[in-house]
Write a structure and sequence with these properties.
There is one protein chain. This protein is of the alpha/beta class and 146 residues long. It is built from 3 helices and 8 strands, in the order E-H-E-H-E-E-E-E-H-E-E. The protein has an 8-stranded mixed β-sheet with strand order 3-4-2-5-6-1-7-8, sandwiched between helices.
Amino acid sequence: MAPRVQFYHNTPDRLALTRELVVNAHGRGRKVAICCADAAQLKRLDQLLWIAEPLSFIPHVAIDSPLAGETPIVLAVTGAETPWPHADMLFNLADDLPPGFEDFRLLVEIVGQTEADRLPARTRWGAYKQRGCDIKAFDAELRVAL
């Protein structure tokens, strides 16, 4: 069965929204995988997750950590060879289809406000549609479904 896909368009700060949604998902007991565009983006997101909530800890590790299988939030750079340790939620911050997305229950796409973000997102939308995914769209800035 194809995953459900949620696109959050018009996002002013992709990493801030990712952090917010990941913190909410973690609070509901979900397991999260995050596919970052590059090592610099992964490092920034890692830092944001450390300071997400003043008095809470958001447990997360890189996919190649020995603790990845038992940690609820796993971060990787697109193209990582290591398979995801779980298949609940996958956040995609890369321009390409994330590896192994077909195995997840829910895929979340975070799309920025620039044309450089929108163009590859349109391509991914079409690819998900072709694969029979149920897609929903949201305006992240206005906080409404489209």
